[in-house]
Structures are given as structure tokens and as C-alpha cells.
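Dig into this one:

. . .
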Amino acid sequence: MSLTRRSFCRLIALGSILVVGSADAGLMKNLLFEPSAEVDLSMGKLLTQASSPRYASEIWVLIDKQEMRLRVFQGNTLLESFSPIAVGRGGSSAQRFEGGRITPLGEFHITRFNPESRFNFFIGLDYPTPFHARQALETGVYSQQDYDDYFAYYRLNGTPPQQTVLGGYIGIHGIGEADAEVHRRMDWTDGCVAVEDHEIARLSSIVDIGTRVVIR
């Protein structure tokens, strides 16, 4: 049974500890990534393949750093477009590290919602994904033990670990307690993608747990 946003927020309100399970079809794609598999570590190829709908009615999100824009699609039909957005103060990159304030590029899925964020509303993503973990292993950022520990944690909890050298807690959020004027002039986050408060409210009403998000 997949987990909906409504049931997720109800569990938060009840003070429950929630782990998103592998039963969600969108998250299953990442969980089936085998550590021993041969993979193409080209972020460009991944983003090219990811930047189109999986099926005609799919609700998905495309975040384009060059255009400073977040778009929501149903299939190929544009539902919403938000601009300007803000990303990390360190810019965006295929690989990020804890404390670098960089927004990771890649294909992600929504795993959680926090309606009580200091940034108004927070939509969490499954960063670091298995792709990022494999990339970290191949570039020497992860040791083999780090890599094995990553997958052991993922299989046990249904979500990736958030406290490794790659960092974590990446998502899309509003402005909240931050400065709206700064948001309109520069990138200011610690690695997340920020939109205005009324935009995060609209976005959160469209997407759900498992919704695919592409950052390019």
C-alpha cells in the first residue's frame, strides 16, 4: 500500500516515527538498484532520460537551474510554473558534500512532508540516491564499507541515510522565516530548492509521496 500525503501528515500530527516503505512504486525503482550492478555514471545521460514523463498521466516535477524555474507536469502538459527559484549558495552539481551548500543534480522521489518547517513547508527528497552512492564509490568519496553501509541502511529503513559525507535533508521548501527579498535576488539555501510560500502551498497540493522530481 502506498503512503499518501494526507496519511503522512496525520502520522506527523500524532507524533509517530515514519519510515517510507519500499511498497511505493516510485521508491521501488531506487531500492532495486543493486550495489554490484554496472551503471552508467553519466549525470548528463541520466538527466536526459529523466526529463520526460514515464507515462501519459504522470505528475512529475522538473527543476531547471539555468532557467531558475520549477515546473510541474502531468505527462507533457504543463500544470504550474514557478520562477524565480533559489538553490544552494554553493550552486548545483552532480556531486555534493556535507556542508558544501550545493544543490544536487539528479532524479529523485518525494519521501516526506513537513508542514511545520521554519521554511513554511518542506517536501523531502530521497537524496542521496543509489546513483549518488555509486558515484561516490567510483570517485573515492565513499569507501566500500561506506557504500555497503549505505545500502544496508536503505534496505532496513526504506530511505537513504542522511548523515554521510554526501550530506542529506535535501528537499523543496518555501521562504518562511528567510528573507523574501534575498530569495528574489540570489541563491541562498543550504542545498535545497526554495520557492515562495504561496508556491510551495500550491506544489504540495499537487504532488504526493513517490512523485518524481528532476533537478538539472
Residues 6-33 have pLDDT under 50 and may be disordered. Strands lie at 59-64, 69-74, 77-82, 92-93, 103-104, 106-114, 122-125, 171-173, 193-194, 212-215. The two ends are 31 Å apart (CA to CA). The first strand starts at residue 59 and ends at 64.
